[in-house]
Amino acid sequence: MRSSRILPTAVAAAVAVMTQAAGAADLKLPRPSQKAQLMQTVGLTDVTITYSRPGVKGRVIWGGLVPYDAVWRTGANEATSISFSTDVKVNGQPLKAGTYSLHTLPTATEWTVIFNTIADQWGSYSYNDSADALRIKVKPQPHEFVEWMQFSFPDIAVEKATIALDWEKLRVPFEIQVSTIDHALASARAAMAALAPDDQQTAYRSASFAFQNDVALDEARQWVDKSIAIKETWLNLRLKADMLAKAGKTADAIQFGERAIAKGKTDAPADVVMTMEKQVAEWKAKK
Prior knowledge:
Structural class: alpha+beta
Largest sheet: 6 strands, antiparallel
Radius of gyration: 27 Å
Strand order of the largest sheet: 1-2-3-6-7-8
Number of strands: 10
């Protein structure tokens, strides 16, 4: 069953064009709405949007070329597709990893963004809401004029990003949330379980990630101690000092900080050594 009126177009003409193309496979001509692909990594999740970019060309877009209350392919030619390499949330709603066709249902005040499991579609002509994986409601926003429709990631963080559709004088944004910290922590735990006897770097990186993100701090302390036991470096000694300082163990932090400085004078950039010396001096002043 289809949930909404499909965008009224010359379906027969589209079928005719595809039929003719099959008989002239070697003929290559540019499309008026050219293909684009946008890939962005958000934390550990790859997001890829593949679409065609129609132009305004002096036309009335919203409520004109793109009618209200009709399912739209969100671009031109094939339906726009979007893929996620991990499970995500879209405006707080869960969506499994995979590739989806991205349809929209515009109105003058609110849009429905649709993620449909049939990824390979020509336009929205064969769109069927029974294959929808997720629908969300979003509010369009005024935006500076954009001639050629485009997708972008205007805001990006470790665990979330905003995806925006911009065309004519309108922006349609929605947010994706990803479980970067959980995925990275699982990766760190697996790496530590299989740690080679001489691999101080993996132990250091795992400890540093956990400490910087304030997660699994007991494990982080064990991991940095493992790194130091394998081989002392100014990096793991400095991390140990920072951990001790955060735990309120200032005297111990000073001790490891001075060891980090001694190592750093032969291995670290001069400005890094100066920063460590300043930090240790501040710890001493607090004693």
